Amino acid sequence: MFAKDRMGFMPALYLAFMDELKPDEKTKFIACSSQDDRADMIMNHPFVKEKFDMIKLSDRKDNPKSVKAREEGNHFFQEGNFKAASNKYSTAVAFADQGGKDFSLALANRSAALQRLSQYERGILDINLAVQAGYPDDKMYKLLERKAQLLQEQHQFEEARENFKMAKKHVGNSSLSSSKQDKFVSDIEKQIKKIQNKENGPKYEKANTSNLEFSQIKDPNPFYTSLHNCIEVKYTKEQGRFTVAKERIPAGTTVLAEDPLGWALDVEKIGTNCQHCLGQISVIIPCPSCTSVAFCSVGCKDTAMTGYHDRECGLMGIMAASALNNFCLMAVRAVARYSAKEILEMKFDLRPPDIEHGKTQQNMKLYDAGDIRNGLNLVHHSEHLEPDEIIMRTLISVFLLKCLKQTKFYEQCTTEKDEDLFITRVIYTFINACPANTHEIHVLNTPTMERWSPMAEMKPIGSGLYPTAALFNHSCDPNIIRCNVGRKMLSVTSRDIEAGEEIFDCYGLPWYSKTRDLRQEIQTKFYKFSCSCRACSESWVTSDLLGLYSVPDLARLVCSCGAVASRSEGKFVCKCGKETDPRSVDIQKIRSNVQAAGEKLYVDLDWEGGCAALREAYATLTQQICPPTLEYFNLQISIWRALWMIVGNKR
Q1: Which of 294, 180, 258, 261 lies closest to 485, judged by CA?
Q2: Is the peptide bond before 628 cis (omega within 30 degrees of 0)?
């Protein structure tokens, strides 16, 4: 529950608490009959009570810091270092109280730097926000002139002329002398004359709709808001919840498009990435109340404020200082999508986890990824926790409750002790659910957007808890692949899936990247199961050990009956009694088809044509040769590369 590479106070506080905890207290804790009793014991322990009573959220606006940053920005601006000036002005914007003059001044100054950096649209946005924030009327003439110039650069000549005219009117409210006002008016008239007869050009380039097409499931499931209708969810005691294809699903079909219930931006990305969509920030839009949260757009800010951030506002600073990891941040965000009052009203619906919850059945309730009840019913393996781990997670859940007590999460809600303990239990359940159900959110760092580059590299930017994606079981040889569009997860079929076939995701450990023994070790430790997929049962080698081969050297071929023909004494004999002649395998055609599919997918970025070529290549390969082979690996990696290049997060 602690971040590996960050320093903070919670790890030290936990160790100090364990030293304070007497043997009889620990015995009593373990013997508690419920999690509420454990939380109550920790909440009222003298050591914890003393420390947690001192918690004060201090992540608030600071006008003196804003003024200082703005002055530093002015210095850089005068030197001609507009990028540094813009950064300082952004700091000034973040720290300024949005109800005061300093906020509008910081925005106006940043718009000047953005004008020099040719970020015209963002400059206009800053000017509009500055006006809304009460920019001083005696300075308004200059701001309106700047807006007109920015509109002119965007070929929005009609709006530019209107703003030039308004600038002429407002100069009369300035403190300029009469002669300077006359000169300003004269300069404005010259600028108007230059664009007098020009007509507006197009406002925006044609939008790229590929992300939208992928993000929308063509045939939505009536029971699951994030799933394709071709999928149903089943349950058995051995498999738990799992997903099955109701019909044949072609390769390249988007079967899941899901926003997370709870998500966390990596602490190192705070300020550079949007807290809501996790996209790269070019010009920050700050939270109206705290200083640790930034957004990439007004739209993201408004959605976040109404959806969750208003109830968690002020926490990010102390969370970063605590060195708690993303599991804890995700738990807070999932809970903050509701108010304390709303969670308590659902108290009787938030029962202990139901391991069959979510399976497809008649008259079932809608399975919505944003519903806290679906998150709380995920598998969490708490029965495997050691006593010290239970103490640590309980301590953290109490800490998070104490923090939420100081936010609007508890606004207009007075609670009794048992109600606080219930909310603590909800937080504790989410903390336990996250390790086995979390997916990292990535961005692809690539030197070119035109085709896949060998220099491209995946980088994590955060984590998300996806209740619907968690219904997919794991295979080291999955039949779906994932990518991120913002914080949304897309799952796409990587090969044809037949009706009745189970749909498998990979929990980050594909057969070609890690050895079987290492995969099994990690799966047992974190996911509490031992994988028995084909790649594991047949001990497939990793891709770095695959190379060119001659067909007679392979261990297995595919018999004409469809079964495996294993090599024995130089012959490939199937259980059906037939012998397969290796000379019947057209290896050149297989390799040619695989290469053609790869070129269409991640070189040409032709999704439809590439998926058609992929299906043909799979057919010729899997009807003759058993995996693992280099060709089999290349097909899997080709569609994955194409998906990320066409729709995934990139920079």
Answers
A1: 258
A2: yes
Query: How far, CA to CA in Å, does 503 sit from each of 233, 377, 471, 582?
Result: 10, 21, 10, 32
The pair phi, psi for residue 248, each rounded to 5°, is -65, 130
Name, in order, each residue with C-beta under 8 angstroms of 344's C-beta and a sequence gap of 6 or more: 413, 415, 419, 422, 423
Nearest-10 Cα torsion for 561, 564, 568, 572: 40
What confidence score (pLDDT) does residue 206 get?
46
The residue length of the chain stands at 651
Q: pLDDT, tens digit, for every residue of 523-566?
A: 888 888 889 999 999 999 999 998 878 899 888 899 999 899 99
- Nearest-angstrom CA–CA distance, 6 and 416: 36
Per-residue model confidence (pLDDT) at position 490:
97
User: Which two structure tokens, joined as six digits, stand for 219?
Assistant: 């045939």
Alpha helices in 233-305 (DSSP H): 298-304
Alpha-carbon distance of 311 to 290, in angstroms, equals: 12
End-to-end CA distance of the chain: 30
Q: How far apart are CA 132 and CA 113, in angstroms?
A: 19
Write the burial class of residue 218 (CB in 10 Å: 0-12 exposed, 13-18 middle, 19+ buried): exposed
Beta carbons within 8 Å of 187's beta carbon, 6+ residues apart: none
CA separation, residue 2 to residues 60, 102, 435 (Å): 25, 38, 12
Q: What is the pTM of this model?
A: 0.92
CB 324 within 8 A of CB 332: no
Amino acid at 505: D
pLDDT at res. 4: 83
pLDDT at 203: 59
Task: Determine the 3-state secondary structure of 83 from DSSP.
Answer: helix
Point out the residues of the chain with pLDDT beneath 70: 203-212
Backbone angles phi, psi at 426, to 5 degrees: -60, -45
Taking only Cα atoms into account, the Rg of the chain, rounded to an integer number of angstroms, comes to 30
**pLDDT value, residue 208:** 58
Exposure string over 223-254, b if 16+ CB within 10 A, otherwise e: bbbbbbbbbbbbbeeeeebbbbbeeebebbbb
DSSP character at residue 313: T
Alpha-carbon distance 540 to 7, whole Å?
40
Residue ranges of the alpha helices (H) in 405-523?
Answer: 417-437, 516-522
| Phi, psi for 514 (deg, rounded to 5) | -130, 150
Q: Which residues contact 213 (CB under 8 A, 6 or more apart)?
A: none
Euclidean distance between CA atoms 334 and 60, whole angstroms = 23
Tokens encoding 183: 């000169």
Asked if residues 535 and 516 have their Cβ atoms less than 8 Å apart, the reply is yes
